[in-house]
Design a protein that fits this description.
A hairpin with a 5-residue loop joins strand 3 and strand 4. This protein is α+β, with helices and mostly antiparallel strands. Helices cover about 45% and strands about 20% of the residues. It has a 5-stranded antiparallel beta sheet with strand order 2-1-5-4-3. The radius of gyration is 35 Å and the shape is rod-shaped.
Length: about 160
């Protein structure tokens, strides 16, 4: 789990973070110190984040939720994080606990794919059983028709026109 802090101000400049956060984002500590929280959050999520941060005035921490952050390569990284309010030396900070969940997301996608393949496999098995049952029933009916045809053939005189068909 990574941890970082931003002053409790409108810009939300990042003033400190752990090295594992730097690894997740791909930014150096110096680069992160020149950025704000809004620089690493996708634009379409900024409004949601501002609401989460504004809600911190009513409580000390947010629950964990999943979002994406933008790394130095401009790629979105799925993360789980929560905001916390901190006070140090009379200054208020927003602390952010963050965990990269890329591996978990990949595992979830692989599991979903496996489950879908299992469902397809079960469907194919059911179709195979149904087809086998239909073929068996058809074979039983065909045996009856052929058996009756043989009985009729035995009763026909050898000089009958139908006998030679």
């Amino acid at each position: 789990m990574s941890y970082w802090a931003c002053p409790y101000a409108a810009r939300r400049d990042i003033c400190g973070c752990q090295s594992c956060l730097q690894g997740n984002c791909g930014y150096s500590s110096e680069e992160l110190s020149r950025r704000s929280l809004w620089d690493i959050i996708p634009e379409n999520e900024t409004q949601n984040e501002k609401q989460e941060v504004a809600a911190l005035s009513e409580r000390e921490t947010s629950s964990f939720f999943e979002r994406e952050i933008i790394n130095s390569d401009k790629k979105a990284i799925p993360v789980q994080f929560a905001y916390h309010t901190l006070e140090r030396a009379g200054q208020r900070f927003i602390g952010i606990s963050m965990q990269d969940i890329s591996d978990r997301r990949a595992s979830e996608l692989a599991l979903a794919k496996s489950e879908e393949q299992l469902r397809q496999s079960e469907k194919m098995r059911a179709v195979g059983e149904l087809t086998g049952g239909v073929a068996h029933d058809f074979n039983n009916l065909l045996a009856i028709v052929l058996g009756n045809a043989e009985l009729i053939e035995e009763k026909l005189p050898p000089d009958s026109l139908i006998y030679h068909i």
